[in-house]
Design goal:
The chain has 206 residues and is an all-beta fold. Strands 1, 8, 9, 10, 11 and 14 form a six-stranded mixed sheet that branches. Strands 2, 3, 4, 5, 6 and 7 form a six-stranded antiparallel sheet that branches. β5 and β6 form a beta hairpin.
């Protein structure tokens, strides 16, 4: 039996770098376009004007990195350090974003179109490209995201437009089915074509 059991998605958690250099937790700070709430572990994108917003990426889309907290001024005029950024009622929101183009992220595996049902992938998922689930608001209690990656269909996972590449499985939470096949409800991914190293930039405005 796997321990611990992964009962629900939790977003993208930065854990390492795939080039072998230790991950130091470095982030960049960006102003937030506060139209959609952003939760710890959500993917985000850089938009015109130098601000970031929730990425909206699923099978395609632009991603600069992963949101790992923020600060803002609340309605009482207090500066708050927070796990998530509400979509309204805040001023001067600033996001902390992991933008390292070689960062690795641990993430749960789900079935197509379902952000709550965690499933298991066999080891052939290593090396595949994968989509992420559609944006769903995370927990306002914990501030955590509910983002996950979507298990590819049989013989799928080679599309170059998919936003993530699976680089490893997580053995700590693996489990065996009735025939002894090992499945992995968590994998390690990297961002394909991250926005800071992509050739296409955002528009300059005056």
């Amino acid at each position: 039996m796997a321990y611990p059991t992964i009962s629900a998605p939790y977003g993208f958690k930065p854990i390492n770098r795939f080039d072998g250099i230790p991950y130091a937790g470095a982030t960049l700070q960006y102003p937030i376009t506060a139209s959609t709430a952003i939760y710890y572990g959500d993917t985000v994108k850089l938009v015109s004007g130098g601000t970031i917003s929730q990425s909206g990426a699923t099978t395609t889309g632009t991603i600069i990195g992963v949101f790992v907290g923020c600060q803002y001024v609340n309605s009482s005029g207090q500066t708050v350090q927070a796990q998530y950024c509400p979509s309204s009622g805040v001023t001067n929101p600033i996001a902390y974003v992991v933008v390292d183009p070689v960062a690795e992220f641990k993430v749960a595996v789900t079935t197509t179109g379902n952000t709550s049902a965690v499933t298991g992938a066999n080891a052939t998922i290593i090396g595949t490209n994968v989509a992420q689930t559609s944006y769903t608001a995370g927990s306002t209690t914990t501030g955590d995201s509910v983002a996950a990656i979507v298990l590819p269909g049989n013989t799928l996972g080679n599309a170059t437009t998919l936003p993530f590449r699976v680089v490893a499985v997580v053995p700590d939470t693996a489990y065996a089915n009735a025939t002894g096949t090992i499945f992995y409800p968590e994998v390690v991914v990297k961002i394909n074509n991250p926005q800071l190293t992509a050739l296409t930039g955002t528009d300059y405005t005056v």
